[in-house]
Amino acid sequence: MDTATFHEKLSQSSLPVVVDFWAPWCGPCRLVKPVLEKLAHEYACRVDFWQVNADESQDLLRELNVSGIPTLIVYRNSREILRQVGAKPAGALKTLFETVATGGDPVPAGLSLGTRLLRLGAGLALAVFGWMDQANWIMLVIGGVIMFTAIYDRCPIWQALTARFKKRIGQA
Question: Is 29 designated active site?
Answer without folding.
Answer: yes
